[in-house]
Amino acid sequence: MLPELFILPLNRHAEEAVQDFEDAVGIPHVHHDFPPHDQGLAEDGSAPPPPPIEAVAPPRPALGERLPGSGLKEKDSGKHGLSRFDKRDDGFMVVPEEELGRGRHPIRVLIEEASELAAKEKARIPKTFQEAVNLYRELNDASPPAGFDKWFEWCQQNEVVPWPHPAAYESILPYLSLPGPVLASRLSKLDDRIMTSIFDIKDGTLTNRGSAGAGHYRTKDLNTLLASIVHLIPDMSVYFNVDDSPARSATYTVRQRSIALAKRGELWSEEEQAAIESKQSAFGWSFPCPPDSALALQGGVPFLPDEDDSAPKQFIWSPEAATDHCAHPEYQATHGTYIFGRPNALPLIPLFTQSTTSAHMDVVFPSLDIINKTSALIPYAEKDKHKVFWRGSTTGTWHSKKWPWKTSHRERLHLLANDLDSELNVLVPKRSGRGVEREIIGSEIANKRWMDVGFSTGPSQCDEEDGSCAEMEEMFEFKARVEADKASKYRYLLDVDGNGWSARFRRLLSSGSVVFKSTVYREWISSSLIPWYHYIPVSVSYSDLYDIASFFEGSDTQPGEQHLAEEIGDHGRKFVLERWGWKDVQAYAILVLMEYNRAMSEDRTASTFADP
């Protein structure tokens, strides 16, 4: 079997993961952290070098033209004060230059649209079982799994919002194209997979096996989560990847064919499946992408985006689309996940993982890391630090002469927010009249005004022998760590990926501060969180970071929209308290395991809910 992608743990219980990794692969532990395992490793255990990075992006279409593999998703006709702006299906809303001086700030438009969506979503929350069935069918265009009535009853008894998260069905859907016994046979081949915890459920009893071991902290968390709901789960064996990063990928052809078959209630023929999967020798990031996508059309070659201050301003309107690496070839040069890790196309096997990317097909399961940690509320008026705050370690990539780590997401963030010698093109309210305008602000002024961002704790995940650790010491001014309760005094908290998704997100939202989130990962809860209402999405490039900070905090001549910031911070905290607690996670776990049971069943009809 081809090796999976394996990216470093996010410095959580690192020593346990390091020991597992070293025993399995034989790569020495270097400077507190370690490089990923076999992503197509050479005989000496080293990872192959990445393809060369082009200096700038290839020419992009003019505003309003179709992007390769993208196109225009939606155009606003001026309902909210802008006469026209383009919502591309790469997830970004582009603001034409001529619109800046005509209407209100584009961020205000996004916030107002988000508020309207939040009201509609609240009205959709099911109050009866039949409403829950109808909502499930509306979200998924399918019938719920068997046991859906028990799931709804459990939600009511435990005062949980009975929201049928689409991630549960969508994660399982491709696997409905294979018979349950075939999936079971394939899963058994993962019995000895490293960083795997397997739970066997039989007659309401839970037992554990697998290489991760019963003592692994994530195995313990999963055991605690499942123990009190196991009586609701049919007999099954569930395979959990306890690493930070997703692991299963397939070619675009296999994925789309599987989804199409599953939606029609059909199965792969053994001959077709064997013929197609045997040809899955793809390696890299373009093989999961549509042939007309931006990444596929560029041949999978990574590039650094051209920093053009005159380019139209843009903001994320769809985080799901903005995390699509197929529409964003630049991620291969600007995000550590895509710089270092490169997956192989693998056979379809439903492995459960805590987050996924657009390139992966893992079954999404909630992260239990720091699930019970909620920040004490500091009233917004008492949050006296009017800056964007972030501290973190140098995770997210491997630092060596073989890899272009200086353009990785965390490194770029630190360098940007601590630069004192550049100029920034920032969107600010016009000094007179309506609309907004660009203003050139020195980076020293902007960073001292709006940013408190930087690495802490010193270099990690670096090669001492080739001098990379020493280079990091010289390049970065490492800052002191700040405890969570003190960080909550900042009005704006930035959340960025590490080696995988960020486990901080829930805790940061609970603080009542406004959370700025930059990510390429998707979690079980992602589709329920409304951008610009519960949190603020920030691009991987950070090209919008200062525009957003300026909008909320204002400039020298105009006050900011701090009352909107306070509202968003309050929305985020309420969501955590009402929709993202231990019981909410259990509710999702019950639902996704019922979906999994349908996939593993020999009789899919019997494992599907039937109206009485």
Mean of all residue-level pLDDT scores: 86
Work out the number of β strands: 16
The CATH C-level name of one domain is Alpha Beta
Radius of gyration: 24 Å
Fill in the CATH topology of one domain.
Rossmann fold
Name the structural class.
Answer: alpha/beta
Low-confidence stretches: 1-48, 53-83
Strand content: 5-15%
CATH architecture of one domain: 3-Layer(aba) Sandwich
Main sheet specs: 5 strands, parallel
Strand order in the largest sheet: 13-10-14-15-16
State the distance separating the first and last CA atoms.
45 Å
Helix content: 25-40%
Number of continuous helical runs: 21
Question: What is the approximate shape?
Answer: globular
Question: What is shown here, in short?
Answer:
With 612 residues, this protein is α/β, with parallel strands linked by helices. Helix content is 32%, strand content 13%.
